[in-house]
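Async update (no meeting this week)

Hi team, since we skipped the sync, here's where things stand on the single-chain job. The sequence we agreed to prioritize is pasted below, unchanged from the tracker. I ran it this morning and attached the output directly underneath so nobody has to dig for it. Comments welcome in thread, and please keep replies under the output.
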Amino acid sequence: MNETLSLFRMPILIFLSGMLLPRSLSKDSSAYFSGKLKGILWPFIIWSTIYGIAVDIHFRSFADLEKLYTGGSHLWFLLFIFIYYLAAKPLQDFNPLLIAAVAFIFSIASPDGAKYSERLFYLMSLFFLGAYASIHMPALLKSLTSQWIWVIAPIVAATAAATAMYELRFGPKYIVLSLVGAMIISAMAIRAEKTIISSILIWIGQKSIIFYVSHAVFMTLTLKAFRYYEVENYATVAIFAISSALLGGWTLAVLKDFSRPVSWLFSFPDFPQRRQAVQLS
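Output:
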């Protein structure tokens, strides 16, 4: 299941992140950059540290620290998004479609599979493509709600099967297939809004960053516990690991709205400023 979604998962996540860009750019520079530091870079540092502790990284080794804090874990995408937001503000006067095209050209020119060149620029192109799509939302929604959208569904099914069979990985050569998959999955999401489970799906979507940053920590700790008790049955370990990730993420998502210390794990705390009473005479 995980393999079949390989060409779709990360491209869709970055594309959706880019769709939030136009609203963010409407803020002044101070609010814009402080928001990205608090809401993106902060959880990246906090959860990279927690993950490092969970997997027994030796924090005395500079090489380990460099790898961990330059995106050497499952949290690398947060660092990428942070970079894209940093670049977006000074480039806000340019058409996002033009920026996406330039980034895509750089990704093609980069060495195949290089994380900090090909992948960085490829996902950057999808990020700004998402920003362009957000500006033209009426046209996008018209396409996604059309019945003709299902004509391309067989392409997505075939792509998913081929991805699992041949271990394909997302990149510039598969951009068309990734975007086709994004359209079908988005069309399904729009129609899911009319179902009874829509409120649950929306809540999970709004809290998805919590599940994503924490899941590997819960799974790692579960695996350690099973190793300690010498449990080797794959199905048992997998079921408990996935269950712990879902339950742990769900617990954090609920507590975040009620516990300030938990909320600080995902956003830099805003300490209340002291107010001084001024008496006018």
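Quick observations from my side:
The CA atoms of residues 151 and 184 lie 10 Å apart.
The two ends are 72 Å apart (CA to CA).
Reply here if anything looks off.
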